[in-house]
Protein: Beta-ketoacyl synthase
Amino acid sequence: MRAFVADSTLVQTECRERLKQIPASTRRRLSSYAKVLITAMLELSERHPQLKDTPVILATRHGDLHRTEKLLRELVRGEVLSPTQFALSVNNAVLGQYSMAADNRQSMTTLSAGEQTYPLGWLEAISQLQSEAKRVLLVYSDEVPPAVYSGQVQSPAKSFSHAVLLDRENGQELILDRLVAKESQLQEDVWGVASSVQKMFDDGGGKVVQDYNGVRWSWHVAESLADN
Structure:
């Protein structure tokens, strides 16, 4: 599958100055997960005003897991859950907050698919681009899981959001491949994969390959195309 990457950013911390664009009443409700995610989207929005009319895809393996874990602990203690906190814990809640703050009325899609959430987010974004949208904003975002889940999952190793503006015609030409892997390569944490993909865009070319239990995904930007 082919698409063009018009711009991208990888963010690990919130930007308080950018978040001032969000109304204070909404900003107070944002979790650390939501703040980093929206920071990444606002960074690209500052460079590309057309994002106001661009569909958004959020790929997240865990969502706002720290908020969810807090709610679960309250349930165990027999406490009454806050309707607001519960509403903000679902995966599409942060997109709703972004949509209202940015006045973006385009489609908002969330995707969660276990360890393959990152590449399948790319697949969904490119599929939408090829079928109907002229451009799509893809955002992958996750935090380091709470300690209580350390026995089940350790990924991602770092909290981050990776935002990528995909275009049908303009930018660095990207090829996304999915193959059956006969021999599995060393698997990287999703943080390592996303940071390698971002570095590839920054360098203007390269290839990133990642195996997931017999499935091999690759992201490729040809240097000769990037230099033209």
Observations:
- Residues 32-47 form the longest helix (16 residues).
- Strands lie at 2-11, 56-59, 108-111, 135-142, 160-167, 172-180, 206-212, 215-221.
- The longest strand covers residues 2-11.
- The chain has nine helices and eight strands.
